[in-house]
Amino acid sequence: MSTVQVPEIKKGLEGVYFTVSNVSAINGQEGRLVYRGIPIEALAEHSSFEETSFLLIEGRLPRRDELETFVQTLRRNMDVPGQVIDALKKLPRSTHPMDALRFGVSALVGFDAEVMDPREGLALMGKDEEARRAYWEKGKRMGIRLIAKFPTLVAAWHRIRQGLPVVDPLPDLSHAGNFLYMMFGEKPTPTAERVMDVALILHAAHGMNASTFTAIVIASTAVDMYSAIAGAIGALKGPLHGGANQLVLAQLREIQARGGVSRVEEWLEELLSRKGRVMGFGHRVYKAYDPRARILKKWAGELAKEKERELYEIAVKLEEINIQKLGEKGIFPNVDFYSGLVYGALGIPTEFFTPIFAVARVSGWVADVLEYWKENRLIRPRAWYSDQVWDRPYVPIDER
Ligand code: SDX
After folding, report:
1. Is residue 307's pLDDT more than 80?
2. What does the pLDDT read at residue 305?
3. pLDDT level of residue 126 (50, 70, 90 thresholds)
4. Is the CB–ligand 1 distance for residue 240 below 6 Å?
5. Among this protein's residues, is 398 annotated catalytic?
6. 387 is known as an active-site residue
7. What is the pLDDT, as a whole number, of residue 116?
8. CA 52 to ligand 1 centroid distance, Å
9. CB-ligand 1 contact for 356 (6 Å cutoff)
10. What are phi and psi of 166, to 5 degrees?
């Protein structure tokens, strides 16, 4: 057998570029993030989640009339069919909110009149421009319906697992405001609504992160938007990805239980000595401070004035010492480090931190899938067959 050339393996696809995308971009060395070229700081300061979702999907900021139409379309589609709510009620109350969300998205498919015959997706590969456009537009409408329904599904599960009545959205509240209203059954304060809106903006998109990549891999098979989004929810749940935010709070509470700020260094040294990881720190692309963490830290400090002041002080101390120890390895706070403190201050249970991430990131998933569909190609990489055995004998079971 001729000697085979072993290919270079890029574990975790680190540094691999598999497509062109302009939905969002990260400069990891300088700690910069843009959505369609606009810096995240400007969007957090001036935009709304609705306007940011339009920007991600359409590639430009909406005119006033366009934004109003988009907001109304979201509002009109926030309701979830009663049968889906009834199906959620049949789940064990211990079901993790991310699993309930994924269940809800899968259940929604049957109620969406536009979910097409599986063959329709082949239009993406065809020469018929009309059919391609029709499929793409249908996928966009499904995506917008999902963006509208995510807050309703997440909030419904919060109510159902407490044995409380599900709260319907109100026509005059923002996306963020309605989410909080449906979670708690009362209109949020202007500050709470603003904080949630900023958090949703900050979490909406982030280059080719694992859950966005998952959505695209699934969508590349020319399947419907629901299948792509359901898979992305599974990826986001992982503690190395969106699941980290709820674990950050657990680590801060662990330090608090040990005695607080004075015990941070000892706790960190113990963790690092057993190769543990500080949740909310480190990033595959950022080797500088995550710009989203900087904004969330400000809000966490604002909100800490009333509640959980000590946890915020522990977080600030942990950040300071962690950067001393790991900064030269390019390990800095990421978006998850302060988000949990913000959500905790809003009264959100920790198990709902990652679903909030999903309520925001669904806009990025939809935008990135729609962009990829414009020049769709099935994603199918290779794995290197290191054994290189091609004629191993089949041994009968009695001779093994
Ligand atoms: C998100 O991709 C995205 O954009 C994701 C996201 C988005 O918006 O979509 O930004 C959101 O998921 C943020 C990340 C949330 N996850 C966490 O906070 C979990 C803790 N972080 C890590 O596990 C880690 O930093 C990752 C998973 C985020 C990135 O890991 P990599 O790039 O695969 O790096 P690695 O695991 O190979 O670690 C490299 C080195 C290792 O040390 P050595 O073996 O080389 O000695 O850095 C160390 C790691 O031990 N390291 C850490 C650390 N993260 C990496 N050490 C301590 N604490 C950490 N948090």
Report:
1. no
2. 78
3. confident
4. yes
5. no
6. no
7. 67
8. 27
9. no
10. -70, 140
Whether the Cβ atoms of residue 250 and residue 336 lie closer than 8 Å to each other: no
Are residues 103 and 97 in contact, defined by beta-carbon separation less than 8 angstroms?
no
Contact 36, 57 (CB under 8 A): no
Segment among 2-6, 137-141, 191-195, 296-300 with least mean pLDDT: 2-6
**What are the chain's domains?**
24-240+350-373 (1.10.580.10), 244-345 (1.10.230.10)
Distance of CA 124 to the CA centre of its chain: 26
The question of whether 336 is a catalytic residue gets the answer yes
Please pick, among 197, 241, 290, 368, the residue that the annotation labels catalytic. Answer: 241
Asked if residues 26 and 205 have their Cβ atoms less than 8 Å apart, the reply is no
- Is the pLDDT confidence value at 233 over 80? yes
Residue 5 amino acid letter: Q
Query: Is residue 331 in contact with ligand 1, taking CB distance under 6 Å?
Result: yes
Q: What distance in angstroms lies between residue 103's CA and the mean position of ligand 1's atoms?
A: 28
**313-349 core/surface letters (b: 16 or more CB in 10 A; e: else):** bbbbbbbebbeeebeeeebbbbbbbbbbbbbbbbebe
Q: Are the CB atoms for 71 and 65 separated by under 8 Å?
A: no
Does residue 277 have its Cβ closer than 6 Å to ligand 1? yes
**Contacts of 115 by beta carbon, 8 Å cutoff, 6+ apart:** 109, 142, 224, 226
pLDDT (tens digit, 9 = 90+) per residue, 37-69?
999 999 999 999 999 999 999 999 999 999 999
Question: Cα(324) to centroid of ligand 1, in Å?
Answer: 17
Please report the pLDDT score of residue 42 as a whole number. Answer: 98
Q: Enumerate residues 6+ apart whose C-beta is below 8 A from 257.
A: none
Other C-beta atoms within 10 Å of 266: how many? 12
Chain position carrying tokens 């940011």 = 52
pLDDT value at residue 1: 53
Residue 284 Cβ inside 6 Å of ligand 1? The answer reads yes
Tell me, in angstroms, the distance from the centre of ligand 1 to residue 326's CA.
12
